Amino acid sequence: MNIAEHFPIYNELTPEEQRLIDNSAFSRDIKKGTLIHNDNSECLGLTIITDGQLRAYKTSEDGREITLFRLLEYDICLFSTSCTMQSFRADVTIVAEKDSTVIVIPAHVYEQLAATSIKLVTYASEVMANHFSDVMWLLEQIMWKSFDKRLAAFLVEESYLENSTTLKITHELIANHLGTAREVVTRMLKYFQNEEYINLTRGTIDIIDLPKLKNY
After folding, report:
1. Please, where are the H alpha helices in 73-117?
2. Given this model, what pLDDT does residue 88 score?
């Protein structure tokens, strides 16, 4: 478990702060689909992704989901420390989108460090600002970009994340990511297939013309 490699400000902390982290942090393997955080879950602590992929999303009153952002290797999840921040509450759910490995700095240790370390507080503020920027970008996409363009961009992003033009993903899951109904996704995917951008089979989307999707 190499905390210094994955925690950007580790080497800027004092020796005492580093020892506190070294003596308390632990590595955890998380299976795909495991709930890591929601508004009712136990406060886990600062979570550092060393392998895999997490998904942060919101759920509407009628059960519809929308992805806010993904967390990949070297990313930091601060929402799992929200119980230590009295003025901060965000009803965000975090799940493992793939089998993942994380390093956890327990909530009580993070709270102790945040009370004394200006560097940690500053870094945490920068991480939250980046998450806020991701959410604002998403809001702009929803408000100003047509759904067909959002779907094309999503397929391109998935291709990069999976390093493949063959995507094992259902229409329902795409709808959850994009905050819409499955029927809307299916209709637009069929249009993309008719335009020969993709080919659809059960549970799979084969991207035939990635450049055209990128420039859609």
Report:
1. 107-114
2. 55
